[in-house]
Model the fold of this input.
Amino acid sequence: MEREPFPEPIFVTCPIIPDLDKYRRRLDKIWTGKWFTNNGKQHQLLEERLKKYLDVPQISLFNNGTIALMTACRCLGLSGEVITTPFTFAATPHALTWNNITPVFCDIEPTTYTIDADKLESSITSDTTAILPVHIFGTPCNIQKIQKIADNYGLKIIYDAAHAFGTKVGNKGIGNFGDITMFSFHATKQFHTAEGGALTFGDPSLKEKIDLLKNFGIKNEEEVIIAGINGKMNELQAALGMEVIKYLDADRTQRKQLYDTYIQKLKNISGLVLPEVKKNVYNNYQYFVIHVEREKFGISRDEVHENLKKFNVFTRKYFSPLCSEYEYYRRLPSASKANLPMANKIVDEVLCMPLYGTLFVQDIEKICEIVTGFQK
Ligand code: T4K
Done:
């Protein structure tokens, strides 16, 4: 059956848009109080709210996830080499580079696309100080194995959980693993503050250091005790977060329904590999990613991506190119294709489909029928 294009473009995501009047009421308070940043009332409220929501012992809010990640590296005193994944957003290796740390790329697993814990040990050298795995697309890494390796070699772990807000493993919030976990609250994320981020951690002694580092290292009026940066979340961001969070559970419920529709509609299509959610994982449904096997499906991932544009559907080829293929990182020995066979295969085959709470089941059904129609 010939399908008509969608009348309006469908993008890969769309932010939660909270009630403007309620946001305005918070802005009124900010205006009256004349306090726009530097640990204001909205910031304090959001910090408490997120600590509970994420079920973490400690949290510190930031102006974005990248600065949060850079600060986490600085806080733990990382240096030398840090092992990470090439299949991630630019911010992950860049946060290391900005700390004068060399990223060492390790290959990924074929089904979860997270760092392959079985290959980690061969990347460790006497210069390695930490591991920086990414819970890519919200899928948890092999947390237990990574912890074991870190313990054996005395390495720190910082998790990049930019995509994993609300994900749980067993009954534990994803922000409870490793030494520090970073979240992004960018507008493309399920929970957002337009721009924003956070670090979560178990060790209470880190709170003071992280809060100092994100505020120039200022201890008091008289003393600046470390070389900090400006990583503070402002009141407008925090107020937005306080409104957005009210929608999260309903948003997740709708996303789940859409996600399940994708699975139902595409599960029997030869050449499309669909995500698998492990039994003990509480999925946040941040992304829905398909894996197009060209030989079986008949056309490539890139062709699916291009063809969908004709129907007003704009998918994303996250995370192509691999970070190891960036001009800046290509020279690294760990960036060679021979070191990263799985990442180099996956990066040409996965496609991020539209998924957000204001889409309808009928939209997803139509997208699936369009994709199915491409099969040769
Ligand atoms: N680590 C990882 C693994 C990450 O993925 C990220 C960020 C970070 C670290 C760093 O965190 P932050 O410093 O950003 O907090 C986006 C985001 O800019 C970026 O935050 C995100 N990851 C990355 C995966 O995606 P683009 O280039 O895809 O954004 P853009 O502008 O093309 O937006 C995608 C779609 O979203 C648009 O087609 C429409 C929709 N959209 C976007 C915006 C900004 C809206 O509907 N409204 C909006 O306001 O990078």
User: Anything to note?
Assistant: The chain has a mean pLDDT of 97. Residues 248-266 form the longest helix (19 residues).
